[in-house]
Amino acid sequence: MEKPKAVVLVSGGLDSTTCLAMARARGFELYALTLFYGQRHRVELKAARKVARVYGVKKHLELEVPLAAIGGSALTDSRIKVPKQRSPREMGKGIPPTYVPARNTVFLSLALAWAETLGSQDIFIGVNALDYSGYPDCRPEFIRAFERLARLATRKGVEGKWKLKIHTPLLRMSKSQIIKAGLKLGIRYGLTHSCYDPLPKGRPCGRCDSCLLRAKGFREAGRKDPLGA
Fold it and tell me: How many CB atoms lie within 10 A of CB 136?
């Protein structure tokens, strides 16, 4: 029996890798989509390639989207500092400067275009509404709204031949729950990269929000982070 196709957004990070493994466990044929958008942590692209090879994706598509030209984020503009050593309480206040304007809207639009071309009705994205991320485009209401948009904005949707589903298996999970679920699936988290502001040789800084949340997740899961950050 032919497997259903799924487009999976793969950044090379802990969350997207877990999401990819979950899609495979659900029996989907995997089509990985990775975006280079001018992020300062471009080392994650190497991680994405490694992850895609390990999980035997049918095709790994890498696209360049120059969001750095727009700016407005600490991840794409070197003039904006990446927050360091923030407490969970500080992380939970407002939208952080690492928010990239409209990033997930752009990413899902590209995934949508590829899914329609492939004849796939399934897109996986590793968004998470917990653990203090504060990003507006990681909320469940955004995902549901995009699904409605997709059905209105595509030929197959208008013709009634297609009902897109955006899968967000990590949406309500804490970082430790994500890690535990991934370990059960045999994920080698040493392949992944999470740091927003890596050191010159690509090692994690250990102090940005992403590094701190990752460390907290492994600590609460009772496991050691293979990256040693």
Answer: 13
140 to 4, 128, 146: CA distances (angstroms)? 24, 9, 10
Question: Token digits for 51?
Answer: 């992850």
Residue 48 lies in a domain: yes
**Closest listed residue to residue 112, CA positions, set 103, 104, 123:** 123
The residue-averaged pLDDT of 104-124 equals 97
Distance CA 76, CA 102 (A): 13
Q: What is the mean pLDDT of residues 118-143?
A: 89
For residue 139, with 0-12 CB atoms within 10 Å meaning exposed, 13-18 middle and 19 or more buried, which class applies?
Answer: middle
Q: Looking at the chain, list the stretches that DSSP marks H as alpha helix, in order from N- to C-terminal side.
A: 14-25, 44-54, 88-91, 103-118, 140-153, 155-158, 175-184, 209-221
Please tell me whether residue 85 adopts helix, strand or coil conformation.
Answer: coil
What does the pLDDT read at residue 30? Answer: 98
Question: Distance between CA atoms of 150 and 84, rounded to whole angstroms?
Answer: 37
The reply to whether 151 falls in a domain is yes
- CA atoms of 5 and 165, how far apart (whole Å): 12
Q: Is residue 229 part of a domain?
A: no
Main-chain phi, psi angles of 124, to 5 degrees: -110, 135
Over residues 10-49, the pLDDT tens digits come to: 999 999 999 999 999 999 999 999 999 999 878 899 999 9
CATH code: domain of residue 157: 3.40.50.620
Q: Is residue 128 part of a domain?
A: yes
Number of structural domains in the chain: 1
Domain of residue 217, residue span: 5-221
